[in-house]
Amino acid sequence: MRRRPEDAVMVKIPRLKRNNLREEIVRLIEEALLAGELRPGDRLVESDIAEKAGISRGPVREAIHQLVGEGVLVNVPFRGTFVARWTPQQVEEAYTLRAVLERLAVEAAMKHITPEDIAQLQATVDEMDRCARKGEVRGLIRLDIQFHEQLYALSRHSLLQEVLARLRRRLYCLVAIDEGYALHRDEIATDHQRIVDALKTGDTAFAAEVITAHILAVGAEVVEQMRREVEG
User: Fold this and answer.
1) Which CATH number fits the domain 88-231, given the four candidates 3.90.180.10, 2.60.40.1120, 3.40.47.10, 1.20.120.530?
2) Domain 21-83 classification at class level
3) CA nearest 177: which of 54, 86, 90, 78?
4) Cα(17)–Cα(53) distance, rounded to whole angstroms?
5) How buried is 171 (Cβ within 10 angstroms: 0-12 exposed, 13-18 middle, 19+ buried)?
6) What is the mean pLDDT of the chain?
């Protein structure tokens, strides 16, 4: 049975220790998105999250406010807070922007990338391959994120890293409807291996083209899945 948008979703929230509670709640919501426990249009209830976490509503309110500001969640007057919905056009725009930004990240990284840096990226791809062979889709998702975060860090461009991180968080809610990880898991490591191989050549223009093509292809697939879901 399909969820109704007005139904609150029961996110798995452990009781939290008294550290940075806002950041912990943000992390837990992100994990629920990546695990597919939260989908676009699902409603979150501040009091339910606070009760499950064993904390006051203040940090939860702050976390929700942050994620609303980043476009991950939306507030609907008189109805509540929901996971943002995307249109195919918005997804296409987001991935087009991400492709441009990751191209910049690769171009910046190529100025000072070392064999050790490439070895770390290779290790992540090798782990992707292991997860794909075992059918560990969640592990594959996390390694995909890790790989791109490694690339961002290699750019040494702090503002670019921040913008890319915010954009990727906005895209987390699409994981629940993205069948690519399950349907094409064997291809994911191969796609990222192409990126590593391009970096190894030392050819900045070639590496930039490879990362751009990769991001645009992923975006096109997500858009196609969304359109099929609407038509179905």
Assistant:
1) 1.20.120.530
2) mainly alpha
3) 86
4) 9
5) buried
6) 89
What stretch(es) of the chain map to CATH 1.20.120.530? Answer: 88-231
Q: Tell me the pTM.
A: 0.85
Distance, in Å, from the CA atom of 80 to the CA atom of 221, rounded to the nearest integer, reads 31
Q: Which residues contact 4 (CB under 8 A, 6 or more apart)?
A: none
The rounded distance, in Å, linking the Cα atoms of 201 and 52 is 51
Which two three-digit tokens encode residue 93?
Answer: 């725009």
Task: Give 4-35 pLDDT, tens digit per residue.
Answer: 555 555 565 555 555 689 999 999 999 899 88
Residue 78: C-alpha distances to residues 6, 75, 82, 85, 157 (Å) = 11, 9, 12, 18, 41
Q: Is 139 helix (H, G, I), strand (E, B) or coil?
A: helix
User: What are the helix and strand counts (H, E) for the chain?
Assistant: 10, 3
For 76-116, the pLDDT digits (tens) are: 999 999 999 999 999 999 999 999 999 999 999 999 999 99
Residue 182: name the closest of 149, 211, 213, 221 by CA: 221
